[in-house]
Amino acid sequence: HDHLTGLLNRQAFDDEMTHAWLQREKDNNPLSLLLFDIDHFKLVNDTYGHPAGDDVLRAVADLVQASNLRRLDRACRYGGEEFVLILPDTSCENAKIVAERMRNRIATLTTECTGNVSLRVTASFGIACAGPKTDLEKSELLFRADEALDHAKSCGRNRSVTYAQMTEENSKSAPPGPKAAG
Q: What is the pTM of this model?
C-alpha cells in the first residue's frame, strides 16, 4: 500500500492489472481503466507547500475509498498526483459513469490543509476499455488511458474523456485525405 494515501501502490497496481487482464481473458468480460490526476497540483504544492499537497492527496484517496467501489475494483495511487482505478467486468459506458461520479465528488470536496487553508480541487480523467475479445495488449490499455487523460487536460481539465471519444474527436478535426480518382 502507498504510505501516504493507503491506496494500493504502483507495484500492487502492476500485480492487480495482470490479474484483472488474465481474468478478463478467462471470463470473456470487458475491463476498464480510469487514470486520473488532480488538476494544477503543482500549483498547490508551490503555493501552499508539500504538507498541504499531501493533505489534498489523502482527501482524494479517502473519497475514492468511500466511493462504493465493487469488491473486484481496485483503486491505486499510480504516482505523484495520479490515481488509477481498475474496473473489471465494466463496459466503457459504465466506466464513464464511474469517472463522472468521481470527478463530480472531487470537485465538491473541500480539503482542510495544514496551515488553516481550505482548498478545492478538480480532477481530469482518462478512460480506456478493453472488450471481451480484443487484440489489445495490457500495456496498450494503460497507454490509451494516459492518452485520454492528456486529452482531457488539453481540453480544459475537470472532465473525463474516453479513448474512443478522443479518437472520434480527433478524426472529425483531421483534414480530409486526398480524394480517390474515379
A: 0.89
> What would the grid cell of residue 178 be?
486526398
Residue 46 backbone phi and psi in degrees, to 5: -70, -35
Q: Write 63-67 long-range contacts (CB < 8 A, 24+).
A: 63/102, 63/105, 63/106, 63/109, 64/7, 64/102, 65/6, 65/7, 67/101, 67/102, 67/105
Kindly name the residue from 81, 82, 137, 147 that is annotated as catalytic.
81
The CA distance from 72 to 88, in Å, is: 7
Q: How many residues does the chain have?
A: 182
Amino acid at 65: Q
DSSP string, 47-90: HH-HHHHHHHHHHHHHHHHTS---TT-EEEEEETTEEEEEEET-
Q: In the annotation, is 169 catalytic?
A: no
In the numeric block, which cell numbers belong to residue 136?
489489445
Q: Mean pLDDT per 10-residue run, the chain (182 residues)?
A: 96 96 93 97 93 95 90 95 97 96 95 84 97 86 97 96 86 57 44
What would the grid cell of residue 101 be? 461520479
Q: Which of 146, 180, 136 lies closest to 166, judged by CA?
A: 146
Please give the single-letter amino acid code of residue 50.
H
CA distances from 126 to 11, 55, 78, 109, 110 (A): 21, 23, 13, 20, 23
